[in-house]
Amino acid sequence: MKISARNQLKGVVTEVSKGATTAHVKVDIGGQIVTASITNAAVDDLGLEPGKSAYVVIKASDVLVAVE
User: Quick check: is 33 in a domain?
Assistant: First the structure.
């Protein structure tokens, strides 16, 4: 599969927490954990479970930085 998004980070799923309709999937990308909220159906379709390799793909129109 090819995708146009350039922010693709390979990692390993560390946790999948399903809710009523949405799941939180945690992916370790080299010591940093990225959490994605996706549908339970997507979790099932992708076969996501702890220990499985996966890519985190980030598509954002804005990146904000703030300080106190």
Answer: yes
